[in-house]
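User: Predict the complex.
Assistant: Input components as received:
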Amino acid sequence: MAYNSIVLVKQVPDTKAVTGKAMNDDGTVNRAALPAIFNPEDLNALELALEIKERYGGTVTVVTMGLPSACRVLRAALCRGADRGVLVTDRRAAASDTLATSYILSCAVKHIGDYDLVLCGRQAIDGDTAQVGPQIAEKLELPQITYVEELHSIEDGVMTAKRNVGNGWEKVQVKLPALLTVMNTANTPRPAGGRLMMQYKKARSLSELEQDGGSAADAEKLKAKGLLIDQWDLDDLKADLQWCGRDGSPTKVHRIQSVVLTATEQKEVEPTDDGLRGMVHELISDHTIG
Amino acid sequence: MIEINRQGEVWVFAEQEDGVLSDVPLELLGRGRELADKLSVKLAAVLPGKGVAGLSADLGAYGADKVYVVDDDLLEHYQSVSYTKVLCELIQKHKPQIVLYGATAIGRDLAPRVASKMRAGLTADCTDLQIGDYEVKRLDQVHKDLLLQVRPAFGGNIIATIVNPDRWPQMATVREGVMAMPSRNGKVAGEVVRESVKISPEDLAVKILDRHRAAKKVDLKASRVIVAGGAGVGSKDNFQLIWDLANVLGGAPGGSRAAVDLGFIDHDHQVGQTGTTVRPALYVAVGISGAIQHVAGMSGAAKIVAINNDPDAPIFSVAHYKIVGDLNDVLPRLTKAIRTKC
Ligand SMILES: Cc1cc2nc3c(=O)[nH]c(=O)nc-3n(C[C@H](O)[C@H](O)[C@H](O)COP(=O)(O)OP(=O)(O)OC[C@H]3O[C@@H](n4cnc5c(N)ncnc54)[C@H](O)[C@@H]3O)c2cc1C
C-alpha cells in the first residue's frame, strides 16, 4: 500500500548568524540581513517522508509559505527526492502569526487533497514556538503525533511510531491520515543527489521566472519538462482573508526593547593566581561557596 | 474565540502525569496569583485526568481559589484531541480571560491545538507575564489591562512584548523554572468544581502501546552551584575543564545551546530560554557570549562569574566578577585555587 506525504517546510534566517542589525523597528525580523537556510528539523521531516516513499511507495509533496525567494528550499527538497514543490506566496499573508500561518497552510494541504501524512519539523529555529504543526492538525481535524523520533511501521494505513516526550518516550499507533512533527534525532537527512541537482537546477516558480524576465511561453516550456514549481496565492487556496495576515493574527507586537541587564556591582578579576584566590576568598566569606 | 470578558478568571492548566502534578503549574499559580489580584478576579486551575481530584488540595495550597476537576477514566493519559476538547469546552463555558500552560512536552502539544480551535492567540516560552495597557495610536484606542506576554525575540538582544487585544482568551506557555515556585500556604483547599466533558472514541485516535518515563538525569534547578560552558570551550574533551571545576565546587555542569548543539554536553544541561531556567547561589559562565536567550535562564543567580577572552562579551554585563582571559589558562588555576582553599 502506498502512502502520500505532504511535508511543510520553512525557509528561516540562520539564527546562528544574528546581529542586532537584523531587526526592523517594528520588531519583525529583517530577513534580508541574514543568510536564509532550510529549517533544520524540516529536513528531518522531509527525510522521514522520503524513507516512507522508499519503503511503501507513494509521493512526497513539499509546501512552503513565504517570499518568492523561499523557492530555494523547494528546489533543495526536489534535489533530495521530493516529487513536487508548492510555493504559497501572497503579500496579504505577510505578518501572519502562527495561527494565521497554520490557517493558510491548512488551506494549501486541503487544496492538494490526496494525502495520508502531513509532516512538519518539530519547530523552526527563528521562533522555536512549535505551534504551527499542532494548529494545522486541529484545522484539518487530524490526530497529531508530535516529537516523532522513530517510525516503526505502517500497516494497512495504521502507523506505529515512537515519540520523545523529553522525560521519556511513548510508542503510539494511529490510523492515517495524521500529522507528524519530527525531531532532529529521528534520522540523518540525506544530501542533495547529484543527478537530481542536474535535473532540478532550472526548476522555477512563476514569480522567479518573471523576475528573470521569462515569458509565458518559457513557463509552458518549463511546465512541459516538469520544472515549473507550483505557485499559489490566497485566492488559489480560496482562503478566507479574515483569517490571514495581520488581520488574521490575534497576537500583536506591543513593544520591542533592547535589554540592558546589569549586575549591581561588578569587580574585574585579574586572571592570575592571586586575582583568582582573592575572588575565591570573597565567595567563601560571603557563603556563596562552602 | 470568546468575547472579551473582564470578569473572566485567570486559569492555569494543571498538568499531571500518573497522578503527580508537574512543577510548572505550581510555578504558574505563583505568577497567576499576582495577575488575578491585579485584575481582581479569581485564580483557577483546570485539572483533567483519572482519579486526580485529590490533587486539588495541593493546587489550593499553591494559590488556586478554585479547581475545575474533570475526572474521567478516558483522560488517564494525556492525548491531544481529548484534552483539547476538555479545555475548549470549559473555556467556552466559563470564559476565562487568561489561560497559562507549562511549556512542557504536553503543554506545547496541547496549547496550540486549543489556540487553533478557539482562534485565539498564543505566545510560546514567555519569560515574564504582567498586566498592562496596550495603545494603538493609529486607531486612537487603548486596550486596558491586557496580559503582557514577554519573550526574548529573534536575535540576541531584544525582548518582545506580545498582546492579544481582542481574540480571547489570552494564552501563553512558560517553561519550567522561569517563574519562582510560590511557597505552600496553610490555606485549606479552594473551591472544587466538578465538570464533565463527554469523551468519545474518536477523541482517542492515538493508541498508546507503551510508555516510559525516566527520572530526570540532572536537576539543574536544584543545584546551588552551576558551572556552564559555551562554544568557546572548543571540544567535548576540553569540556572536562568544566566538569572539573563543577566537581570541586560540588556543583552541576551546564551548557549554552551552542555547547549542546556542538555535542559537548547533553540537552538536559542546557541553560536558557529553551533549556532550564536556574537561580543558583553561584553561576560560572565559561566561554559563553551571553545571548539574551542564555541570560534569560541564569540572570537570577545570586552571584555570577564570567570568564571570556573577549572583554566586550555581553555576558559581562550581568557578571559580578569579570575575568577576561583564555579559559584554558584560567580554569585550571581557578580549580586549583578552590581545591587548595576549601
Ligand atoms: C529561539 C531561540 C532560543 C534559544 N534558546 C537558547 C537557550 O535556551 N540557551 C542558550 O544558551 N542559547 C539559546 N539560544 C541561542 C543563543 O542565541 C546563542 O546562540 C547561544 O547562547 C550562544 O552560545 P555560546 O555563548 O556558547 O556561543 P557563542 O556565542 O559562539 O560564544 C562563545 C564565546 O566564547 C568565547 N571564547 C571563545 N574562545 C574562548 C577562550 N579560549 N577563552 C574564553 N572565552 C572564549 C567567545 O569570546 C564568545 O563570547 C537560543 C536562540 C534562539 C533563536
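The two ends of chain B are 60 Å apart (CA to CA).
Let me know if you want any component modeled separately.
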